[in-house]
Specification:
Layout (H helix, E strand, L loop, with lengths): L10 H6 L1 H11 L14 E5 L2 H13 L8 E4 L12 E7 L5 H12 L3 E6 L2 H10 L3 E3 L11 H15 L5 H19 L5 H9 L3 E7 H19 L4 E5 L14 H7 E7 L5 H14 L6 E5 L5 H23 L7 H12 L1
Parallel strand pairs: 1-2, 1-3, 3-4, 4-5, 6-7, 6-8, 8-9
């Protein structure tokens, strides 16, 4: 069984617990009072930042393609002007004190939206009482927001099913749980694909490429996990957009980029046929100007299972990268300092 040489808050164990976290979260959003009727919802808005905000990206990838109303994810201080009585707004903040989410959620509540709060407590939970908003409590035993992706992303999917906007959510969640269990059991072994990929990437900077809503959420998650768990830069982009701009940027500096960048392609079953071809064409173009081109292929039945599978793989990959460098993946002092200085100024 693998572990990390330095892990003061238990990030490895929290990551390995994702399947059980998803299963527990699937029960939390059921029979919640205060929800609007299906015919009253004109749009769904998800407010959140960082490790909480990824829940909105997961909702867009997994549920939005099946929904008859639009879904918008807001990562900032202001709720959209269109938010009103026909809006179902999920305000997601692990701590309950994320200032951007607090301001945007307050805007939404004042504009007449139905606000559903997902949090472990804090100021957001207090304000929810005044708004008469349903509150889903996230376990405060989770060591960091980014380790609570299941606890924050799954309840909104359940609520959408309860309302009638996302029929079949429970089946997709069950399939995701099954795949996460299989993948977790593979990735905690001493010699596994995530640790092997971490060794190949080494001290180069990962550039994560994928496609579509599933790949966009997964690639962004990989990038941010490398940032926070490894204290390392990382970057991401998606097909087909990158073929309209970024690809041209490899025309110079190959002597530098081949020493410092590794491309990691995240593949999944929802790729457009032309995107499949683009992966091959871009890989051929980049092999001479990057350290290597790697690939991780999603497994599981359905978009939610494949997305969470990629997320779990990336989470372990980032932890193994941290372990190689003797980095504690828990603390994020640079992020904490900015928050403290914003409060004190």
């Amino acid at each position: 069984m693998s572990s990390l040489p330095l892990d003061t808050v238990g990030m490895f164990d929290a990551t390995a617990n994702l399947p059980e976290q998803v299963a527990a979260a699937a029960e939390v959003g059921r029979n919640l009072s205060g929800l609007p009727r299906r015919e009253m919802v004109e749009q769904v808005v998800v407010l959140g930042m960082g490790g909480s905000g990824i829940a909105g990206d997961i909702l867009v990838a997994a549920a939005a393609p099946f929904m008859a109303v639009p879904v918008v994810v807001v990562k900032g201080y202001t709720a959209p002007a269109f938010v009103g009585e026909g809006s179902l707004v999920f305000a997601i903040s692990f701590s309950g004190d994320t200032e951007e989410t607090l301001e945007a959620a307050t805007d939404a509540a004042m504009q007449g939206a139905t606000v559903v709060v997902v949090t472990s407590g804090g100021e957001l939970a207090k304000r929810a009482v005044g708004w008469g908003s349903p509150v889903i409590l996230v376990p405060d035993s989770i060591p960091q927001p980014r380790a609570g992706v299941g606890a924050m992303a799954i309840p909104p999917l359940v609520i959408l099913e309860e309302i009638g906007l996302f029929p079949g959510a429970r089946q997709w969640i069950d399939q995701a749980f099954s795949q996460l269990t299989r993948r977790r059991d593979q990735l905690v072994e001493d010699d596994n694909p995530a640790s092997a990929l971490a060794r190949r990437v080494g001290r180069t900077i990962p550039l994560i490429y994928s496609s579509g809503a599933v790949g966009s959420a997964a690639a962004q998650r990989w990038k941010t996990q490398v940032n926070e768990n490894c204290n390392s830069p990382a970057f991401w982009n998606v097909h087909p957009e990158l073929c309209h701009n970024e690809l041209q940027g490899w025309g110079q500096h190959g002597d530098v980029t081949r020493q410092v960048l590794t491309v990691v392609n995240l593949r999944h079953d929802a790729e457009h046929p032309q995107v499949m071809r683009r992966f091959d064409l871009v890989a051929d173009a980049l092999r001479e100007v990057v350290a290597s081109v790697e690939e991780v292929r999603a497994e599981g039945e359905g978009d939610l299972a494949q997305l969470l599978d990629l997320i779990l793989f990336g989470d372990f990959f980032s932890l193994y990268l941290a372990g190689q460098e003797g980095i504690d993946p828990g603390p994020v002092p640079a992020l904490a300092e900015v928050k403290e200085r914003l409060v004190s100024s």
